[in-house]
Amino acid sequence: MCGIVGYIGQREAYNILIKGLKRLEYRGYDSAGIAMGGDNPRIYKCKGKVSDLEALVENLDFSGNIGIGHTRWATHGEPNDVNAHPHRSMNGHFIIIHNGIIENYTKLKSGLENKGYVFESQTDTEVLANLFEYFYIKEGSDPKKCVDAIRNALRIVEGAYGLLILCKDVPKQLIAAKKGSPIVVGIGDQEYFIASDASPIVEYTNSVIYLKDDDIAILSDSGLSLINLKNIPQTPNIHKLDLSLDQIEKNGFDHYMLKEIYEQPRSIRDTYRGRLNFESKFLRLGGLFNVFNDLVNADRIIIVACGTSWHAGLVGEYLFEEFTRIPTEVEYASEFRYRNPVIKKGDVVIAISQSGETADTLAAIQLAKRAGAIVLGICNVVGSSIPRETVAGVYTHAGPEIGVASTKAFTAQVTVLTMMAMAVGLANKNLTQKEFEDLVEELYLIPDKIEKILEKADYIKEIAEKVKDANNALYLGRGYLFPVALEGALKLKEISYIHAEGYPAAEMKHGPIALIDEKMPVVVLATKDPSYDKIVSNIQEVKARKGQIIAIVTEGDTVIRNLADFVIEVPACDFALSPLLTVIPLQLLSYYIAVMRGCNVDQPRNLAKSVTVE
Ligand code: G6P
Q1: 172 within a domain of the structure (yes/no)
Q2: 573 part of the active site
């Protein structure tokens, strides 16, 4: 969470910082700030969005070729002008911005207070700024020892940080440091662009270095040098970015979320491209090559994830158990890591994450690794922390997802899980060649079927108009469609602030049925699948209590058409693949409801795209 951006070079830094912050705003948007470095360091910051910051500095002096910028998602201290980053140390030697959490900040803070330091904000970041200064002054305020002061201070810091640091006494230098929270350094022509992810950088260069934990990068007009916390020089590994500018722009859509919903036929094709061949009925996941036998022979599969990725994991549980008969569990990463789970050597743990940076998922990976499990990743952001922490894995290739409410990442994750389960099922002979080939065909056709669902957007908008004023909503599904019910409810909650619950349809009778009245929209996932008759009964139960029924049905269904208030048809497909189709109308429904309620769809309140704190 929190976006950080920095620039050092010949250009005016301000425009690069503001543009970069706008691209990073999905990481947090409760306050924003910049600091211009050089001989006359200045800080401008305020509560609110990057646009509020722009208005604030409009007539002020923001000139300079060195600068840092921050967009915040509050952890320590409420969102206000004082707690906004950047933070300056008490005597003005250091200005810093920070993403992450300093876990021992209380202890460090009281130590500094005992030495006379006075704090303005409630943030852990100001503690770091003063800690750097304390070490710097202790070493005689020698500009040559500025990096040593930072390094020594960071050695006693516990927790996570992605940091950009300006030191007043070394005006032509910018320092970046990383532990836990991501930092990417873009290399231009005698200039450097630094950010939490590559989106602010891609416009200027595609040569980047991903800092490793404990790295400190020192950037100045004489170049880049990289050391670690022990002062050992590190060799920078330069990567080429596989990202283009139009992938991170709205391209004519009103919101990123809508663009990303519409991208799904393409993103699913990109996810199976080169892996699944329709003609030869061939499936190969190159990223799993070295571990494939371990997966086939796994005693148990444990999937760990958070949020929407957890819902994809739940679909994965159904897929793995059906296609491979390997016992599979899905765990919230945050619960898994704290409850002393039983993990054995023959277990395979699969971590799913769009961003690859979710702190709880990373911690769950580390726990599973320590316990001796084989840990694989399913991740969207290339080069992010999770792929680097896992022994092998599969990228989803959905392209950058910027809308805070996840859409195309979910369908890409489910696509990968489907392919993994199919490959393992064929290898361990739980799937016959014929069943496998039928699934290849079915999966191959999913993007075309999604195109057909997207054509119904106007009708879904009409339904949204009818239910947009509800205070509560219920989503019901069975089997593969239970996780979709959860995901549909989550989408609605996240962006429209309507309270919504997803439930296994049969469980409705054990509680939620008490909530149903004529004001309650009930979204029922009711495609033609093995439990169709049962779901029809559930619809009857809702109808008897006057709930407003929105049913997602298979094309040509006439039975439910006579029962439901609204019916959205999706093309027929194998039940195991039905999450990929049925989630689309639910994404559109919540999108239109949120827009009609005047909500900020791409930046819903209190949320952030990448949750890098625990
Ligand atoms: C946040 C996002 C969700 C996402 C979850 C897990 O809550 O708002 O959209 O599903 O984090 O993120 P990950 O990047 O690990 O998939």
Answers
A1: yes
A2: no
